Amino acid sequence: MNPRETIGIVGLGNMGYPIAQNLIKAGYAIAGYEIDQARWQPTDHLLYVNSLEALIERTSVLLLSLPDGHTVQSIIEQLLNGCANRSITVVDTSTIGAKASQAIEKLARSSKLRYLDSPVSGGVRGAVAGTLAVMCAGPKNLYNEVLPILECFSANQFLIGPQPGQAQTLKVLNNFLSATALAASCEALHFGQTQGLDLQKMCDVINVSTGMNTATLDKIPHQVVTNRFNAGFSNSLLLKDISLYLEGCDEAGITGDISRTVVQLWDNFVTSSPNDDATGLFRYTGKKSRRISDT
């Protein structure tokens, strides 16, 4: 294989690493910057480097896959301070919220750094399979330029709007819906179990009925029924995402009655089991239900 060009990836964790592998399959070489060296998995066409400076010596196209807005903003500031005269394209697949994305765009405005707000959805399974959904916000010409890269690790690509932050808004509201569906499904399925119903059979029926959702289609059958509880997305990260959603609701004047309840549930779960897999909510709500029934 003759790689067409090198792409830099900052953050090669649960999402960044499989994204890198799909880019390699498509013919790209990858230069990776991952501060946690325990996560380093060197392969053909994946070279790990020890600094951002070493990364941008090899490429002018960077893809970010990082846990939060503070981390992303720190990386952007380092890029702006270290390579102010270089033209760099940043495709940010992280979920950081609209305000952080807008702040980054403002920072980059007077530089040669081009920033595309590009969060992804589909989880680790989607990243491995190359079937993620990518929602982008930024200049249309920049989106069109990087689209061939996005197509290597995603099945669906969307240009949401011209302003960074718009894609973040869609991503956090999507994750709120996902978190709510999982929470509601856990409660409903626990109720069914108290009435002697089989967990898998309930999902089978729900999935051809009006209650179908991503929890009953994917998370419960693949992670809960199998007792794996390893979807690859932590409860802490999901709490971060839905907290960003609630913050946005407050700023927009949306009452957020449902989101406050959902955020409180996830906050309690994270307090009880920090950094547990998100699908562990089923175990947490089951224990909570049993405590209530015993009183």
From TrEMBL:
Q: Where is the 3-hydroxyisobutyrate dehydrogenase-like NAD-binding domain?
A: 165-280
Which InterPro entries does the entry link to?
Answer: 6-PGluconate_DH-like_C_sf, 6PGD_dom2, 6PGDH_NADP-bd, HIBADH-like_NADP-bd, HIBADH-related, NAD(P)-bd_dom_sf
Keyword annotations:
NAD, Oxidoreductase
Task: Give the 6-phosphogluconate dehydrogenase NADP-binding domain ranges.
Answer: 6-161
Tell me which PANTHER family the record gives.
Answer: 3-HYDROXYISOBUTYRATE DEHYDROGENASE, MITOCHONDRIAL, 3-HYDROXYISOBUTYRATE DEHYDROGENASE-RELATED
Originating organism: marine metagenome
SUPFAM superfamilies found in the cross-reference section: 6-phosphogluconate dehydrogenase C-terminal domain-like, NAD(P)-binding Rossmann-fold domains
Q: What is this protein's record name?
A: 6-phosphogluconate dehydrogenase NADP-binding domain-containing protein
Question: In Gene Ontology terms, what is one molecular function of this protein?
Answer: NADP binding
